[in-house]
Amino acid sequence: MRFSVIVPAYNAELYIEDCVRSVRSQSLSDWELIVVDDGSADSTLELARAWAEKDARVTVLHQENAGAVAARLRGLRAARGEFALYLDADDAWEPNLLSAVDEGLRKSGADLLMFAFRRVPGREEHPFPAEGWIEREAWTRKLISSSAVNMVWDKAVRREIALACQGGEEHEGVAEDLLMVLPILDRVGRFYYIDRPLYRYRAVLDSRSNAFRPHRHQEIDAARAQVLEYLVDKDLNDDETLARFYTLYVDRMLDCLSRAIRAGASRAQRGQLFRDVRGFALFQMARFYPLDLPLSRRAMRALVAWRLDGLYAFLVRRQARAQNRARC
């Protein structure tokens, strides 16, 4: 079997059928689909099982809620394909995804292949400018300065390598994709990229990735600490690289703080969040590097460092009100 498609699904009754249809509509038919229901409280499991009854290539597994990483790994261990791909239950594929991936893999002989994607609604995302091999230096630059290579769902990886690089389960949350992908990237060294938007990423407003989560800042800090460890281990920790690394880190921390304020976190929650961020070793180290942030973001970082939490919250709320008025 050529491809194993693994879908972690949790309370996805609104989207799971479109997701499954997009796999069954592939122009290449040499695949298996493994849906792992992660303890859904809605009809996700029943809908998935109904598809399994219609198509022998569809398998449904069920587990108590353990998170997306655990669900992906459960599916991976049950997979039989030469290559594994992950597909989130609220997303979908273009009909030619597998045929394009198969063509790219055969042409390149790669162990890992990445493709572009399209936001729904929204724009196409092209992490790299053209099809071809992406060497370690190129993807490392993306790793430290953006989230362009962090996702698991825009890649096809040789199953044996994915199994050998299992990880991220202990960091379930916002950084889970990065912590699954980084060991694979390190193992393969380079990968092949096809510059075609084959994946439809649905921006679900009430999804976990868009909501305020009290431990989000801790998850990001732990993940970026692993990235820094990787940079040091590979002797990629020159001053310019570290400046880009800390620029992204501080920007992510400011996002966490602002998100909490806009979401109406309690005063106690906000206070703990600010104290945590100030206490992170990476946040403290960032002051020694020239951060490539807009002046407004540098000012907000200074407010955090100077413990002017109330003024920070006031400015975030004022900006939110201005944005709301502009939309009216």
Walk me through the structure.
The protein has 328 residues and is an alpha/beta fold. The protein has two domains: 3-208, Spore Coat Polysaccharide Biosynthesis Protein SpsA, Chain A (Alpha-Beta Complex), CATH 3.90.550; 212-327, no CATH class. Helix content is 49%, strand content 17%. It has 13 helices and ten strands. Strands 1, 2, 3, 4, 5, 6, 7, 8, 9 and 10 form a ten-stranded mixed β-sheet that branches. Helix 1 links the parallel strand 1 (3-9) and strand 2 (31-38). Helix 7 runs parallel beside helix 8, helix 8 (216-233) runs antiparallel to helix 9 and helix 9 runs antiparallel to helix 10 (267-279). The radius of gyration is 21 Å and the shape is globular.
Give a quick precis of the structure.
The protein contains 13 helices and 10 strands.
Provide the residue-averaged pLDDT.
94
Largest sheet: 10 strands, mixed
Q: What overall form do the CA principal axes indicate? A: globular
Q: Which fold name fills CATH's third level, the topology of the largest domain?
A: Spore Coat Polysaccharide Biosynthesis Protein SpsA, Chain A
Poorly predicted regions are: 206-210
Strand content: 15-25%
Instruction: Give the CATH architecture of the largest domain.
Output: Alpha-Beta Complex
Cα radius of gyration in angstroms: 21 Å
* The CATH homology group name of the largest domain: Spore Coat Polysaccharide Biosynthesis Protein SpsA, Chain A
| Percent helix range | 40-55%
